[in-house]
Amino acid sequence: MRAFAVAFFLAAPLALFAQHGRYFRDSHHPSIGNPEAIATGTKLFMGSCAGCHGPDGGGGARGPNLVRRSLWHPLSDEAIFQVIRKGVPGTDMPPTKLGDEQTWNLVAFIHALTGPASANPVPGDAAAGKAVYWGAKAGCSSCHAIHGEGGRLGPDLSNIGGSRPLAVIRESVVEPAKDLAYLGNEAATVVLKNGTTLEGAAKNRSNYSLQLVDKQGKLHLLQMRDVKQLTLSESSPMPADYAKRLTKEELRDLLAYLADQDIRKGSK
Amino acid sequence: MARTTVWTLTLALAASAQVRHEDIAKGALADWLTYAGTYSGWRYSPLKQINAENAKNMVAKWVYHVPNARGLRSSPIVHEGVLYITDTNSVYAVDARSGRLVWRYADPRAQKGGVNRGAAIWGNRIYFTTSDNFLVALDRQSGVLIFNKQFADVEKGTTSTSVPLIAKGKVIVGSAGGDSGMRGFIMALSAETGDELWKTYTVPAKGEKGSETWGDLIEWGGGAAWLSGTYDPGLDMLYWTTGNPWPDYNGSVRQGDNLYTCSLLALDLDSGKMNWYFQFTPHDTHDWDAQSWPVLMDTEIRGQQRKVVLHANRNGFFYALDRVTGEFLRATQLIDKVTWAKGIDDKGRPVPAGNSEPTPQGNWVCPSVKGATNWMGQSYNPGTGLLYVLTLEQCGMYFSSSQQPQPMKNFSGGGATEEGGQVVLRALDPKTGRRVWEYPMTGFGRMWTGTVSTAGGVIFTGDDDGHMVALDAKNGKNLWHFNVGELLTASPVT
């Protein structure tokens, strides 16, 4: 099987995100959710932590992704506090000598990283990113829609900033293959017994039926008994070269624009 | 946790593209394009593949479990083989043949919870409202968001549970929240953009006509429009019901009729202007919202052919009004036990029986707070000429509170109980208001299922014991039943 040339963008809704990415919301420490504490924590993080963990906590050469981690059970804010204080023995994570307040500010920042990108300060120029998004070089809108404008094959991005942390959005843009295994956005080619060939995204499928949205955005409700051959892409149809295709500034601005896509902006 | 399920028993497919006004106006066929199936509120389908002879052969095809749902209130919209179902702040598009999910839209950051009564369709879009008053438009095939626009402020006590009605490109929505104090309204929004076209309040502002029927709490008077309504394309008139006045059980702080609560309003579709109103329960103190479907038909009453609106009301009476003028034509008793009124006078006003007000010690009154019927869908079958209405024979204690009313604090001025009770499906003759037959159910008076009836002469509904049932539309004979494992909480479609 091989992928056909349909470009998907973000492999968005992450099925296990709720378990994997979230911290317990059991902390009542006043710094959690406090904008001043988060701002102070941001400075501390950029100065001491970003070198290993990446500027958005998305992981780097020496430090793991803090936003979407491999643990099944999420950590509490208190446990993160202890890791910052004591380090992780046997790894590159050193102990620190930060005071309680500073440490909590850092925890507040890390906690905020797991929240929607739109709720946190994001570097870059969203207006410039808008031009990148809708421009031919990135070509995002050929597959993705924002408020109904754009393609229907990739996930809707109208609320991407309101529903995903920045680091997750970045990873989906730069390393889309990581999250392809997602029933609901598989690239599929279907040959029907009547000779018709359809290409699009399999919104859902079972041994008996297939729900496919084609490149024109039209929904086909198929029964597998009418299907001669179904070919599913093994890799993400989302181009994997955005880190090279776009300049650093373009990528940063594009992420700022995506972070700004929030359907709850201005709600009362 | 109880899971809530959507059942499909039969369906038919049709090919059509964009849904137009004329398509909805035609009424249900292979598609089901508006909550009540027809603008006139009939919940009637001309399909007849299933009939009184073969209904006994029906088998379940599939079950779709809406994740974490508790008592869905949504009646599916069906178009080109896809069912559109809503739950709180979410929409599910389901392949009607297989029961498989096509897409889901959810807005978990909505500020409020609460039930949602369903979606509407127009063009290539599916519409629904979030509990914090956003009108959301989605691409019907992919689920892609087209727009979401807020039409009312939750800070003023307004939430949204209603199913939108779409006529001539106008999306008609209403307000919920009347039990905690708010000012009810009905609004028309543009289907194209979500922009406000008109807004009609169900309670007048201070100084306006009708405000003399209130006291100081008029700004929080309630009169919610939490269900939906019906529409007469010929007259271009909307028929919308309004909820109870606030505080629900303490009438001493709002002396007067409390217009236009517990009423039926006839509104001009283009302007929202109130052409007439009819108040079923003046100065209500029993939480008898008028939320039940205004059913539109042309029929003969006392020897004269008339355009009527029929309304089975929570207060225990079944009304017929002239839908052009609002003239009261007739009221008959809907249930056996009505203790609060001796009857309805020739102007349509209840004749009080006395000693039925809520008191600090409690007062035993029939019907109960749930009412003689409620929001669940009735159906009218032109083949039998009968209207099928789920009724509840139940009484309860009504208590009043002397506490100072506080808006938006979940204060209702008292409380009420529901005791025992029996659900009875009744077939009523629109010409006379009399019962033709009835189907009593076993159970505890808890069901909320509506009805649908077909040209095949079958009524589909839920019973009070967790079964889906098919009844003979001519005589109420049970043709088929299927145990779904829990009470059905919304109206079926076919």
> How many structural domains in the coordinates of chain B?
1
- Stated plainly, the CATH topology of the domain at 22-113 in chain A is called Cytochrome Bc1 Complex, Chain D, domain 2
Secondary structure tally, helices of chain A: 10
Query: How many H/I helical runs of chain B?
Result: 1
> Architecture of chain B, CATH level 2?
8 Propeller
Rg over C-alpha atoms of chain B, rounded to the nearest angstrom: 21 Å
Structural commentary:
With 268 residues, chain A is an alpha+beta fold. Among the domains of chain A are: 22-113, Cytochrome Bc1 Complex, Chain D, domain 2; 186-232, SH3 type barrels. Chain A has helices at 17-20, 35-48, 50-53, 77-86, 100-113, 126-134, 160-163, 166-174, 242-245, 248-259; strands at residues 145-146, 149-150, 186-192, 197-205, 209-214, 219-223, 227-232. In chain A, the strands form two sheets. Chain A has a five-stranded antiparallel β-sheet, with no helix packed on it. A two-stranded antiparallel sheet of chain A has the order 1-2. Chain A is elongated. The model of chain A is unreliable at 1-25 (pLDDT under 50). Chain B has one helix spanning 21-25; strands spanning 4-8, 44-45, 62-66, 77-79, 82-87, 90-95, 101-106, 120-122, 125-129, 134-139, 145-150, 165-167, 170-174, 182-183, 185-190, 196-201, 221-222, 229-232, 237-241, 263-268, 274-279, 295-301, 304-312, 317-322, 328-333, 341-344, 350-352, 363-365, 379-381, 386-400, 414-416, 419-428, 435-440, 451-454, 458-462, 467-472, 478-483. Chain B is mostly beta strands and 494 residues long. Chain B has one domain (4-483): Methanol Dehydrogenase, Chain A, CATH 2.140.10. The relative contact order of chain B is 0.13. The longest helix of chain B is centred in the first third of the chain and has 5 residues, at 21-25. In chain B, a hairpin with a 5-residue loop joins strand 36 and strand 37. Chain B is globular. The two termini of chain B are 28 Å apart. In chain B, strands 28, 29, 30, 31, 32 and 33 form a six-stranded antiparallel β-sheet that branches. Residues 1-5 and 7-16 of chain B have low confidence and may be disordered. The chains are: A alpha+beta (268), B mainly beta (494). At the A-B interface, strand 4, strand 5 and strand 6 of A face strand 7 and strand 11 of B.
